[in-house]
Each structure stands twice: as C-alpha cells, then as structure tokens.
Amino acid sequence: MSALAYGLDGRVFVITGGSRGIGFEIAKMLLSQNAKVAVCGRKKEGLESAQEALKGGNNLLAIQAHVAKEDDVENLFNKTMEYFGKVDGLINNVGMNLITSATDADYSLWQKIIESNLNGTFLCSKRAGQIMRNQKRGKIVSISSIAGRRSAPAMGIYGIAKAGIEMMTKVLAQELAPFNIQVNSVAPCMVRTKFSEPFWSNKEIYDQIVRTIPMGRIAEPDDVAHPVMFLCSDASNFITGQTIMVDGGASAI
Q1: Contact, 35 vs 26, CB < 8 A?
Q2: Any idea which residues carry the catalytic annotation?
Q3: Are strands 243-246 and 181-188 parallel, antiparallel or unpaired?
Q4: For 1, 35, 89, 104, which has the most beta carbons within 10 A of its beta carbon?
Q5: Whole-model pTM?
C-alpha cells in the first residue's frame, strides 16, 4: 500500500488505457487505497495480463473498449454501473502518438491521433459527467502533457490534442461545478513507460531531454499517479478547471 492515504476507500473509478504505463500505475495505486477500479483497453490480451498483475479481486473490473467509439464508451460505463453501482471518478489516460510533422501528415493519421487522445477524452468525460451530475458529486482527471504547451518535433498533432484536453478541462469544469463535480488535468513531461521508450532508451535523446528538466530526470509513472490521487480525493474539492504540471520544473524555464 502507498505510504500516503488519500481517503478513497470504496470509491469507484474508471481508468481508460489502464492496462499499462501510467494508467496501470494509477489503477495499482487506487487499488492500494481500497478503491474500486474499472480499467479499459483495446486489446483483450493486455487487459487479461493487467488484471492478473493488479490482483484486484472483486474490486477490479476489466472491460475491452475503444474510447473513440461511442457504443464502446456506453458499454464501458453501463458495465461499470451494473457491477459497482456508481462512478465516483474518471481518469482519462488513453493516449497515442505517431511520429510525424503536422505539415506532412496524412489526414487519416491526424484523425487517428485526435480520435485516441481528444475524441476519446470527450466521449468518456461526457458520459461520466452525465452520471456524476445525477449523483451530485464526482471527479474527472485527464492526463495531458507538456507537449500541449510546448511544441516539439514529431509531436505536433499529439500536442494539439493535448492542448484541446486542457481547454476541455476548463469547459467541463465550468459546466459541472454546480453539481459538485471537479474536472482537472495533469500534464507530465516525458514519463518512463513503454509509450515513450523509443526516446528515453536512446542515451543521446535522453540526455537532450533531461537538459531541459531542472530536476535532472524524466518522470516515473508514480510521479504522475500521486497528483492524480490528490485530484481524486476530497483534498481537491475546491480545485477545478486546473492543469497540474508534473515536469520536474521544465515549464518553469
């Protein structure tokens, strides 16, 4: 169990892309806080592997879903409600990037990146917001990125999508505030996951990245998971529409 207690006993959270990387770390930490967790992913094999590794028992539900497909999102939340009876929080974690310049990208590639990062966040937040509005409480936390604020080579479309997530955070925060629902996001720098391995596994690229981070390292998955726990907890009840930068000081220079 995490040495920090966030008071999440019995609360129900949906995590998109929860079978690996940051999403898996968030799921693991929520389960350690005695929360109940529904994770979704596109690949059945990955979900089964994550379910086995998380060892969540009856507190864990794994659902195959593509978050950019409205029917899949509806099924995700319906199954969660049927199994757990409520949804206290949503963590929008699904993200993907294909290395390309925006100028030379095929439209189909643009669509793929926007669908996964931005459209999926919208569809899940919309459905979660409707459920939470009826409950008169809830938390929505989206994983953004420093790329949403600082352009980088080959990360342009991804950055555009993440910038959209931050504006979506503000819009939903305003709309849902009267219903006691807080909507925030967390924006990390590079995190040591499989998703970013092509960058951090290359020493030359890694050294270039670290030179832009005052704390002298990239983030680990739990560096992101802890701020998410805080935003899911009652300690953040008067914080909404905000993006917490988790970047080792990179955005401060």
Answers
A1: no
A2: 158
A3: parallel
A4: 89
A5: 0.95
Residue 230 burial (10 A CB sphere; 0-12, 13-18, 19+): middle
Count of all residues that appear for the chain in the document: 253
SS3 82: helix
Q: How confident is the model at residue 1 (pLDDT cuts 50, 70, 90)?
A: very low
pLDDT tens, 69-111? 999 999 999 999 999 999 999 999 998 888 888 898 999 999 9
Angle, CA 142 vertex, CA 227 and CA 171 arms, to 5°: 120
| Nearest residue to 224 (alpha-carbon basis) of 195, 241, 248 | 248
Distance CA 140, CA 29 (A): 17
* Rg (the chain; Cα; Å): 17
* Residue 164: closest CA among 145, 190, 140, 139: 145
3-state helix, strand, coil in the chain (%, to 5): 50, 15, 35
Helices (H), the chain: 21-32, 44-54, 70-84, 107-114, 120-135, 156-176, 197-200, 203-210, 221-232
Distance CA 189, CA 220 (A): 10
Cβ neighbors of 87 (< 8 A, separation 6 or more) are: 12, 13, 14, 77, 80, 81, 128, 131, 132, 135, 138
Residue 36: strand pairing partners:
12
φ/ψ of 142, rounded to 5, equals -110, 145
Q: What is the pLDDT of residues 134-166, one digit of tens each?
A: 999 999 999 999 989 988 887 899 999 999 999
